[in-house]
Amino acid sequence: MTAPRDIAQRAPGTEASHPLSVSPTATFHSPRSSSFMAGSLAHRAAAAKQLKPFNTEDVKILLLENVNQTGRDILKGQGYQVEFLKTSLPEDQLIEKIKDVHVIGIRSKTKLTAKVLSEAKNLLVIGCFCIGTNQVDLDYAAKHGIAVFNSPFANSRSVAELVIAEIITLARQLGDRSMEMHRGTWNKVSSKCWEIRGKTLGIVGYGHIGSQLSVLAEAMGMSVIYYDILTLMAIGTARQVPTLEALLEEADFVTLHVPETPETKNLISTAQLERMKTGSYLINASRGTVVDIPALIKAMRAGKVAGAALDVYPNEPAANGDYFVNGLNSWAEDLRGLNNIILTPHIGGSTEEAQRAIGVEVAEALVRYINQGITLGSVNLPEVTMRSLTLDEPNHARVIYIHRNVPGVLRKVNEILAEHNVDKQISDSKGDVAYLMADVSDVKTEDIKEIRDSLDALTSRIMTRVLY
């Protein structure tokens, strides 16, 4: 077979300017992973014919915000061109950088808006090396055939452990005592310092972090209640309460683990703080918009809330430095002046273990998508997978057709593929976007061009890729 190509073409007006060239002799090497599952999958796939749809050195990847070394190593091990920056970029610089990249990897500070993504003419996939994806315009990405992957669970333990540490620190006023000692002041007191044993922890959002935190808190002698919009099975002796108000009235410590949505904006504000026990504590390691911070400042000054720990804020600096000032958030100095408050710079998932796990999970998802078109774990496209081709199937091609989810598309696609032997095919939709994969056997270069051109001519097309 002569030099094949990865055809990655988009809806009119968004075509990639340079299709990725293919090396038919390139060899796929499974990235190393610390997980048993990844290792066993690599072993089982040893005899598979791995698709290499392009010369890997032609794939340009931009990694921002100090993505962990494990992820960088996996991507570099594929032979991709990887540019790595420790910080996020201002919008104008980001637009310039993203114009010719095929893959971008970010964490929580980089904002991939429709304005930014509209300049990314070659972009195939986005990797969010973090839990959240609210920093990406997921709808715009999906409608332009750009897959988005994240790592929703890998740092759950790290966040849960941070919250346990903050509960104890607040209960014992350790932050204040430490700062006093640093200033040379000896202040040995026990007034309003508590054990956490026997106290009630209220968890708002009983997902992966909340449920892990529940187990740790119970092991330390706390009673656990939780509120969630879904009815969820309790772990241990934890108890679900029917309303947020019921939780606030009963809990000694309230900790928040919810996503950023219109419904969770200012979830904890003046009315909710008034429902909390006098002398209770508030912890937010979820999203910065969930707590009305000026209202929290007033509640702490009034003695209603005895202490708080915040790891996230409505506006966060794009880089490390002396930026947590009133110019960023107008209440910053008032917040810093409170007693018994822990302020941390969004480090809930910032442990070596969590960042290594995130690096492996997201990088492997990117490799699977680039090389094989597999969308398992994508947050904005249908999750579609297909068994690998084998070494006994040398003249096969994998056709990927991302299209608008409108009536009659499958009939037209199958009319195009009917002239060839389709070994396997799968299609799924998510909202207005559908994703189709088909493995076609005994194809020649001219067959692939014919298939590609015919699919590109369909009015439903968002993006066409052919891998082999």
Automatic annotation (TrEMBL):
Record-linked Gene3D superfamilies: 3.30.70.260, NAD(P)-binding Rossmann-like Domain (3.40.50.720)
Keywords, ordered alphabetically: Amino-acid biosynthesis, NAD, Oxidoreductase, Phosphoprotein, Serine biosynthesis
UniProt-recorded Gene Ontology molecular function terms: 2-oxoglutarate reductase activity; NAD binding; phosphoglycerate dehydrogenase activity
Record-annotated ACT domain positions: 398-468
Pfam family, one: 2-Hacid_dh_C
Keyword Protein biosynthesis: no
Pathway(s) annotated for this protein in UniProt: Amino-acid biosynthesis; L-serine biosynthesis; L-serine from 3-phospho-D-glycerate: step 1/3
Region of interest: Disordered: 1-28
Known role: Catalyzes the reversible oxidation of 3-phospho-D-glycerate to 3-phosphonooxypyruvate, the first step of the phosphorylated L-serine biosynthesis pathway. Also catalyzes the reversible oxidation of 2-hydroxyglutarate to 2-oxoglutarate.
Protein name: 2-oxoglutarate reductase
